[in-house]
Write a structure and sequence with these properties.
Layout (H helix, E strand, L loop, with lengths): L4 H9 L3 H13 L4 H21 L5 H22 L8 E6 L7 H12 L3 E6 L4 H11 L3 E5 L6 H12 L6 E5 L3 H4 L2 H4 L3 E3 L3 H21 L1
Parallel strand pairs: 1-2, 1-3, 3-4, 4-5
Helix pairs in contact: 1-3, 1-4, 2-4, 3-4, 3-5, 4-5, 5-10, 6-7
Length: about 220
Amino acid sequence: MNMGFEQLAEQMIRGMTEACWVSLMEQVESGRNSLYIYEQWLGPAMRYVGSLWEQNLITVADEHLASGVCDILLTRYAALVKPDQTNGKRGMFLCVEEEAHYFGLKMVSTLFEERGFDARFYGPNLPLEGALLSAMRWKPDVIGLSVSIVYHLPKLRQYVNALASLPSRPTVIIGGRVIEPYGIERGLADQAVFVPTLLELNDWIDSYLLADAEQQIVR
């Protein structure tokens, strides 16, 4: 029987990596896709861990241990769902400078990779200079940015302005839990695509790949 996300969280807090992996494989074997695993199971488990820490019901060490287990699960799962061939598209994914919350963006990167993109995940806290240099060298088709802390929003604007203006004209997509409440999309709508949820992101990838396929036919 598949365990619920609260049970998964308890195992993560106890550092039971292999037991958590077995539970994840049970989700896969029961037919759950990546969207379900991320949105309904693994994501809620980490949010539950965070709520326990905020209530002082677990220690910061417990929270870090759970985060480490989650990171391992995401990495192993990404290797499991990676397709044999790519579609020729590239995506790079990063958090703005000083932004440390990256699990959601790592899920995003895996979703792109699962759909055939050559995906590079740069993780948390990447300075703009480094992001620009990598983007100019690698020329990704899509650049994904994430922010979850309100006081990082000014940095997000800087990243979008700089990355969207690159000569290769990548599509910049933005996610993060503070995007909608603070209406930042209103000022950047002409430079970036906003995808508040993984479900919306999945629909956007569908549309993006369909449009690209139609362009290839025309050519």
